[in-house]
Amino acid sequence: MPNLFSPLKIKNIELKNRIVVSPMCQYSSEDGFANDWHLVHLGSRAVGGASLIIFEATAVSPEGRITPDDLGIWKAEHVEGIKRITSFIEAHGTVPGVQLGHAGRKASHRSPWKGGTAITEEEDGWQTVAPSAIPFIESEPKPLELDAEGIQKVIADFKAAAKRSLEAGFKVIELHAAHGYLLHEFYSPLSNQRTDNYGGSFENRIRLLLEVIESVQEVWPVEYPLLVRISATDWTEGGWTGEDSVALANVLKDKGVDLIDCSTGGNVPHAKIPVGPGYQVEFAESIKKETGMPTGAVGMITSPEQAEDIITTGKADLVLLAREFLREPYFPLKAAQELNHDITWPLQYERAKPRR
Ligand SMILES: Cc1cc2nc3c(=O)[nH]c(=O)nc-3n(C[C@H](O)[C@H](O)[C@H](O)COP(=O)(O)O)c2cc1C
């Protein structure tokens, strides 16, 4: 059997293979609600054979949305629409996971196809918040530096969102601590210039992430996986580094986090990122090798052979695919065929299954 199709048990949850749908914003919600788009989009990828589908960055508060069109889970009313989708996904043998996020200083922007620019408060945007009053792009409105009360609200919002995630049928939570959003903004020295106990030293900068993890763990069952997506490097001098990520992984391991999903970048606009096939895999590999923490690799993983190689050589425990899954919702079914492995197809599609 190809290693890509070996099951993986994390806590009490069994993934049938190593191929995961990476979280992808759809900018298709109104007031944070899930709708038919999400059902069809995510449902097709369950039919396509992914072992785990991580829903897009799902806002823990209205002010934590990147755009007004983001999916959210900040109120009880959001649960029902999501539950319909998680139930469908699970019925097709795929584990439903959610990425809980707060966009910090990158909130209050237009969706990409509406221009992607900042929406000012006068234009129905909202005041953004961040560790320090430094905007992502100089010309954009300044975020408000979170005070102690604001920080407590963020922690409470993640906790309430985790509780609702359970009600909504999710079996995996991934905390979004990457791509220049709030939790990353706190641990990166490029965006955090605080002088209180949430800024300065490494220990202080990772404090908010740790407090969010602790608050989520108060309501999230121990038998369900808790993952954290990080930006393993800022690709910028004076920023967060691969070594910092290894140090963080050691701390997260002690905290009971189950896997680190290793992305990079996103916290400063001018970073030079050496984009290419599998360009972030090295971070999943070094964190796994140096800490023993299970990892997920993401970023330009597009072929079954490449994915199989990452798992077989022990560079990561999971591969997460984003754009390739937009091109090919049935990637796992096709990958099995290419790797000459027999997997179960949805009964409704059986007649189209290639015979070996
Ligand atoms: C349409 C789209 C939306 C995305 N939204 C998110 C998101 O909500 N959360 C996140 O962590 N990454 C997001 N990403 C990044 C992907 O999860 C992934 O890390 C990145 O695209 C690299 O993987 P790929 O080369 O397989 O596309 C998004 C990417 C795309 C293409």
From TrEMBL:
Pfam families documented for this protein:
Oxidored_FMN
Q: Cofactors per UniProt?
A: FMN
Q: Which UniProt keywords apply?
A: Flavoprotein, FMN, NADP, Oxidoreductase
Coiled coil (UniProt feature): none
Instruction: Please give one Gene Ontology molecular function term for this protein.
Output: NADPH dehydrogenase activity
- Looking at the record, the residues that make up the NADH:flavin oxidoreductase/NADH oxidase N-terminal domain are 3-341
Q: What is its EC number?
A: 1.6.99.1
Judging by the UniProt lineage, the source's domain of life is Bacteria
Q: Does the keyword NADP apply?
A: yes
Record bears the keyword Ligase = no
The record's listing under NCBIfam families reads: PRK13523.1
Q: What is this protein called?
A: NADPH dehydrogenase NamA
Name the species this protein comes from: Pontibacter silvestris
